[in-house]
Design goal:
5-stranded antiparallel beta sheet; mainly beta; 193 residues; 8-stranded antiparallel beta sheet
Amino acid sequence: GLQAYRLDTHVVEAYNGTAWGPLVAAGGLVLVQDDTAFSAQASVSTNAIFTSAYKDYLLMVDISAASVDDAALRLRLRAAGADITAANYSNGGTTHVIGATTIGARNSLAGDYWTPINLNGADNNMLSMRIIAPFATNKTKIGWEAYGRIGGSQGGTNGTGEYNATTSADAVTVYPASGTITGRLKVFAYVNA
């Protein structure tokens, strides 16, 4: 069949005889938000990236600088260009400090954002978050792995959470509790089976 590389989306597509679509096997990833750099921003928002074309997404954030050490990294869903601020977000997970043998907990219930990690102002930080069914009108679920600041030391978290409402979201905002962040983000969609 025919194949083409789209310069606007950086995706290889194939023609199946009736329509063009991404050349990705079911369960694979397709880029929906290209690598987007940001510098000294109080918040970073995507727009209209969650659609009915895909059910589940992978958000990757690489933060190379945070102006305030130990500030919480927060995330909110968005709809029609605005953050969803209702107090329906909750998350919980485990924390671990590099070089230590103790494991802690990170929990946030009924807040107006998710908070997976605190930021290390002197080192790199990262977040990899799976966002399950954000565009559907049911609960949105998340799972993440993050690297940043835990109790004053470098460490990581992993956990899960949800947005417990039936709001259809089409994007996400990433922001520190205080200060600014510098880095890059990108979003992939999981190809439906």
